[in-house]
Amino acid sequence: MYDASELLAKLSNAFGPSGHEDEVRKIIVAEASRHSMTVEIDNLGSVFAEVKGRSDRPRIMVSAHMDEVGFVITYVEEAGFLRFATLGTLDPRILPGQRVIVKGLEKTIGVIGSKPPHGSTPEEMKMPFEMGELYIDIGASTRAEVNRLGIDIGTAATFDVQFDQMRSGSIVFGKAFDNRAGCAAALMLMEMLKQNPPTATTIFAFTVQEELGMRGAVVAANRVLPDVALVFETTAALDCPGVEPRRRLLNIGQGPALRIMDRSAITPTTMIDFVKNTGRKAGIPYQIHISLGAANEAGPVHLSGKGVPTSVLSTPCRYLHGPTLMLSMDDLKLLPALASAVIRDIERPDQFAFNVV
């Protein structure tokens, strides 16, 4: 059986911004090969692994994206400073002073720099940072020195944060929990289904480039052509100071989240009720949420083929799309347990079909 913390640590510490998922993919392939005889990689770099059920149908797809938010070098200044763009959505207010890893010939540590307060006017001090003002400082003094490190336009970078455990309970912190937590949950689910196969056959899709528009999921859904899909994600817990109570829809430590809708998809009520009832029967706590400003892989997946009933199960996480994220391992462990119970109760390809009145 997996040690969930060890698995998440391995995945979290891996380097894998969008389009540069190689390290994560290597881990996923190695782990998935323990539970599936059919592990394949598509032309975009997504990984697919099948766990046979007692029947070929229903055919269920479980997706989890491998990529994390990060940076790509867009220009190397003559003095050795690196200008960058973001891979995914990042708030420029949190970036100055953060340590990063720039992956050239080897991994090089850098710091995100900005115009220092000592050299700023009072008016400039009142203004928020613009992304174009920031740069990465790797301690180089010339462009040639940077190039000797294998760093140039197109080189990727991400935050330099190592996984660790908090002193209190099951809380852990690290980078890239969005969505390495979903990948860890998917691998744990693979182990559960392999040990005790359900009726359904489950195809796991570990996808690429979600942070740039769910690109891997578009191809994955058209490849798998599932009857039903579950998307494993990491979602924002808003149980923080400064957030008004009516917006605190999710809390860490109170179970995985079942998404009703976001700006990319509305979960069918038949699936919502099914997952709720399954959770109650299994005694697995869950939280309900709506995230009107967010999108995830359910968007392209539910629009693939002839339309796919799709549900999103997420691990609540603080400080999403930041350098250091926090979540509860209790929530993460409950997510594959809930998904396993759901999959075991899906016995027909048309289980969520709409009936003619």
List keywords for this structure.
357 residues; alpha+beta; Aminopeptidase; Elongation Factor Tu (Ef-tu), domain 3; eleven-stranded mixed sheet; six-stranded antiparallel sheet; 9 helices; globular
How does this structure look, described?
With 357 residues, the protein is of the alpha+beta class. Strands 1, 2, 3, 10, 11, 12, 13, 14, 15, 16 and 17 form an 11-stranded mixed β-sheet that branches. It is built from 9 helices and 17 strands. The protein folds into 2 domains: 4-68 and 175-344, Zn peptidases (Aminopeptidase); 70-159, Beta Barrel (Elongation Factor Tu (Ef-tu), domain 3), CATH 2.40.30.40. It starts with a helix and ends in a 13-residue tail after the last helix. A hairpin with a 3-residue loop joins β6 (99-103) and β7 (107-113).
